[in-house]
Structures are given as C-alpha cells and as structure tokens.
Amino acid sequence: MTGLHSLQPVLFMQTEVLIMQVDTVAKLLEGEEVNLLRNIIAFFLTLVLTYIIARYGIVRYIIRTMQRRAFDPSITSLVRLIGAIASAILSFGLAFAIAGFGSFLTAMSAVSGAVVIAVGLAANDLIGNLLAGLYIINEKLFIVGDWIEWDDKQGRVEQIDLRITRIRTFDNELVAVPNAELANSVITNPVAYDRLRITVQFNVGYNYLDRATDIILEEAGSFPKILSEPAPSVRIAELEGTYVGLKARVWMAEPTRSHFNQLRGEYIAEVLRRFNTEGVTRDPDQIHLSGGIGVDGADPVTWK
Which of 107, 128, 231, 246 has an alpha carbon 20 to 30 Å from 224's alpha carbon atom? Predict the structure, then answer.
C-alpha cells in the first residue's frame, strides 16, 4: 500500500503532462486548420477577382479598341481567345502565390511543361493551320466574296477562320479547306482588281480574216459592260490548214464569277450570230504551203 501511495504523485504528474501535450497538439491542429481555411479563401478570392479584372476589364478594352479601329474580325477573335487563356493562367498563378501554395505551383510547373510539349507535338497540324490563317489574313490574298482558284479547284470565299477557309463551289458545295493547304498552293484571284480581261478565240477561214476581225471589234463595242479603255483587241493566235485562230481580248469592270460568265457567254453568242449572218466560216478546203530553201537559193512559195 505504501508503494502504491508513493506512485500516485508520479502518475498524476505524467497524466497532467500528457493532457498538456494533447492540448498543445489540439491547438496546433486548430491553428493549421484556420490557416488552411484562410489560404483557401484567399486562393478563390484572388482567382475570381483577378480573372474578372483581366478578362472583363483589360481584354474587353483591347477588343473594343480593335473593333473601333476596324481590325479584321479573325484577328479580333484570336486576340479574344488568347486573352481568355492568358487571364486564366494569370489568375491561377497569382492565386497560388498569394494563398501560399507556391510549392505546389513549383511542382506543377514541370508537369505542365511536359503537357505543353506533348500537346504541341500532337497539335502540329493545327498550329500550322493557325499560322497559315494569320498569314492569309495579314497578306490579304483574298477576302470574303472573292472568287479564287487553287490546285484545279475554284469557288467563292464564304468565311475565313484561323484554322480553315470555307469556300462555296460553283456546284453549290461547301468546302472547308485547311489554311495550310491554301498557304502552300498557287492561288489565282481573278477578282482581286477592279478590272478583268476576257479572252476568247474564234476560228475562221483565211478568206474571212479581215471581216471576222471587224465583227469581233464591233460586237465588243456594242456591249456597255465591255470597257472601251483598255480598248478591245484581236490577235492572230493560231495558224492551221483550214482556219486561223483569232484571239479576242476585252475588259470588264467590277468582275465577279457570275458576271464574268454571263458577259463572256453573251459576247460569244453575238459574235457567232454575226458570223452566221454574214457567212463567216472556216475554209472548206485545206491550204497547203510548199517551198523551201536550198543551196541554190529559195524556191518559190506556192498555194494549193
């Protein structure tokens, strides 16, 4: 009994020490929980406020300024997308730093770098098309409404985006062409300027050469849509056995695909009508040219 009474003070002292340690740990835990809660609140407040200021303040001001200065809509759309992404990255980075999660941000930087490299390799074609789209928009090779030709294809430009260009063919088909394909192709834009030349070849007999030339020029002058300057012209383009090819060159203003085809068709029809009325045809018989040059001089040239 005496030994038991002597142990009681020691047990009480150890119990009191244990209780004090538990209280200390509890207070520490309570402090960490408060700090963690405070950091979480700071993180979300910083994230939301920074994003609102960057996205709906700075970026919106930049977009409105670009719109007032009549920037291309595709460029404006690209800046809006980049601004949204940059706002999100800035918001998260600042929120992590203010909330004291810097170590987590440092650890994630290596992972995010690897992710960026992987995404970049996987999206190589996409990035190429985006850069090609910027090139097309900046160089203004064509605009919406233009009639263009490339790689034996042609159509009217409906919309130019950063990744693709939408073109409506003359069979009324909508074609989505990657911008990289257009940027790496030879593009013909017949309506890039305010005038377009129409070239047509008429084959007539040798005996009707002068009269056919007069008819071609007279009919060109009868069309109000055919310009007088530059003046219509006729050139000999081909010499065959039964006919001569006369190439007519006339100009039209404010060209479009539909107006070009309409004017060209009407002009050809009127010239052929005049040919038929005045009996301008090919020669029925072939014309043979004979003769030569020898050591004794030139032989006489004869017609058969």
Answer: 246
